[in-house]
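#onboarding

Welcome to the new folks! Below is a worked example of what a typical request in this channel looks like: someone posts a single protein sequence, and someone else replies with the predicted structure as tokens. Don't worry about understanding the tokens yet, we'll cover that in week two.

Example request:
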Amino acid sequence: MAQTPRQREAEALAWLQKTFLFAGWAAEDLGVVSRISRVRTVTERQVLFEKDEPCGWMHLLLEGSVQMFRVQADGREVALHEVKGEGLVACAALFAGGIYPAGGRVVSPSARILEVKSKPFLDLLASRPDLSRRLIASLAGRITALVDRIESHSTGSALTRVAKWIVDLPRLAGQGSVVMITGTKKSAASALAMTPETFSRSLQRLQAEGAVRVDGRRIHVLNVKDLLRLAQT
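Example response:
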């Protein structure tokens, strides 16, 4: 059954209250944003937007993974990067030029996305400098947290880095102990500053110690306590 406008607004408001981007916003201001927002559940491989398409919405990923990609002149598709868990998707298009610099598609089994209409949102920020400052503060805090995470993933032993990486991966909906490798193992190894062979050996060791079970792209966390201990060493 389709949602009524009031139900859509209530769902958007509930998510707005929980997202990092709108931390510290007053209830009445969140109410304004909820009226120009919607929450969508999108299935795997569905394209959210194409390169050079006008940016009609700001996309805030709530759950799942979205891959940014470009198609070369010869028809080859090049994957650029992935947004996983909670994060902004192609937000530069909103604030700089209004055109998506690349395409975006869902690469997890499904994804939940909060979408805010671009023009009324930008108009709101232009009329309320205090909200613009709050938004900048939230983005700055997010960048700091991401830098800290990157540093934690590039220091320590290979086993520790892989354990931290698994701990940080988003859990599959309804399967709290299962995480999904949404990209390739090669790209995961590159992000952790190690070779694919070292990455595979570390996964094998975690599996041998009973902390995880690897099943293709799925990683079943069997012993959370041991995994957290390894991630913190």
